[in-house]
Write a structure and sequence with these properties.
The protein is an alpha+beta fold. The protein has 12 helices and 8 strands. Belongs to the acyl-CoA dehydrogenase family.
């Protein structure tokens, strides 16, 4: 893996990144076939990887040190996130996959919820899922959700509705659900995030929803599921603010991990192109069209990485990063798909088969252009935001 770290990476962070790269390359990637298959063998393998990560001092690097994590801030974690993300299973094996849920609980959960669930979540003893998208509802418009949470006399809520494409829902101990608690369809107010335990009466895991053949997403049903009052995240009716905060960080983390996978595909392509030819033929890298694949892929990587790290820097400083996150998400998704496609071309038929990681990377690259909002959503929202700055300005002093 030959990724270039950000220019301001400290030497100790560079060493940490190298250790993570080695762990992913030597431990996680060889385990991918078992992890991809799911089931008891996958759970056992993941548990063993997590124990090795703890023993190596690589566990939960971006999580708070007081909760058992590594205490890296977002800016320092960014280069490590690329190395972890070279495998889809890297974040789970190294304990950083819970960053979004742990951060959300730390900032917005009640003391009772934090005391019960936060530390076990960081330790990898519990798992969580996030459910916002619904069948037959535009996923790009969360104000249209039909799942409802009705108040119960004496306190608490009853949640009724359906969700789908909830990551990791099959193994989750609880699901964070966006539900309407007031207002009308389309209103931004009146939406609330609630933590719903998966062992609560009325909760049902309906089915697995394979994404281009890969497991990991689930469809869920809620039939008047009782939820305690203290399970509300933030203020009732103001759930979109919490969701938006989560989405910005989540999109940026995905972009970092997609960079790691694009770098992995690039390394595979270059190794293939530089290898010796068969029956005395020159290596593939001697062909100009192969050289063009290498050049275009390197250009995509080198131009996308600064965009993603610019978004990281703004989020780390607590500044408005909506434009930068939108640019980073679209650029990283495109780069992953472009580089993997080039690698497949260089490999030929072997790149379509089970003997390389390229089919799985190709699947991730295609899904990346839809996950966390399709490219079109980010393109239009960024463009509108920029164009507003060129519109009529209010008079001075207004």
């Amino acid at each position: 893996m030959g990724q270039s770290p950000p220019a301001d990476t400290a030497p100790e962070d560079g060493k940490l990144r190298s250790r993570v790269e080695e762990f992913v390359r030597e431990r996680v990637i060889p385990s991918e076939p078992v992890l991809d298959a799911g089931g008891p063998a996958a759970r056992e393998t993941l548990g063993a990887l997590r124990r090795r990560a703890r023993d190596a001092g690589l566990w939960a690097l971006p999580l708070p040190a007081e909760l058992g994590g590594g205490g890296l801030g977002l800016r320092r974690y960014a280069a490590v996130a690329e190395a972890e993300g070279a495998s889809d299973h890297g974040p789970a094996a190294l304990g950083s996959a819970t960053l979004l849920d742990a951060g959300m609980l730390a900032r917005h959960a009640t003391a009772a919820v934090r005391d019960r669930w936060l530390r076990p979540l960081v330790a990898g003893e519990l798992s969580a899922s996030y459910a916002m998208t619904e069948p037959d509802v535009p996923g790009t418009d969360p104000t249209r959700v039909r799942t409802r949470a009705e108040p119960v006399p004496g306190g608490g809520w009853k949640v009724t509705g359906r969700k789908w494409f909830a990551s990791g829902a099959a193994e989750a101990d609880w699901v964070t659900v966006l539900a309407r608690t007031g207002g009308a369809d389309g209103d931004r107010e009146g939406l609330t995030l609630l933590l719903v335990p998966t062992d609560a009466p009325g909760f049902r895991f309906v089915r697995e929803l394979p994404v281009l053949g890969a497991a990991g997403q689930g469809e869920l049903a809620f039939d008047a599921v009782p939820v305690p009052a203290e399970h509300v995240l933030g203020t009732p009716g103001r759930g979109l603010a919490v969701a938006a905060e989560r989405l910005q960080l989540g999109r940026t983390l995905r972009a970092l991990r997609w960079l790691g996978q694009a770098q992995r595909a690039f390394d595979l392509m270059c190794a293939r192109a530089a290898g010796g030819g068969e029956r005395g033929r020159a290596a593939l890298g001697g062909h100009q069209l192969v050289q063009q694949h290498v050049f275009e892929s390197l250009l995509a990587l080198r131009t996308t990485r600064p965009l993603v790290h610019e978004a990281v820097a703004l989020l780390d400083r607590g500044e408005d990063a909506r434009t930068e996150v939108g640019l980073a998400k679209v650029a990283a998704a495109r780069t992953l798909q472009r580089v993997v496609d080039a690698a497949v071309q260089v490999y030929g038929a072997e790149g379509l088969g089970p003997d390389t990681a390229l089919p799985a990377l190709q699947r991730t690259g295609r899904a990346a252009r839809v996950l966390d909002g399709p490219d079109e959503l980010h393109i239009t929202s960024v463009a509108r935001r920029i164009l507003r700055t060129y519109g009529p300005q209010p008079p001075a002093g207004s």
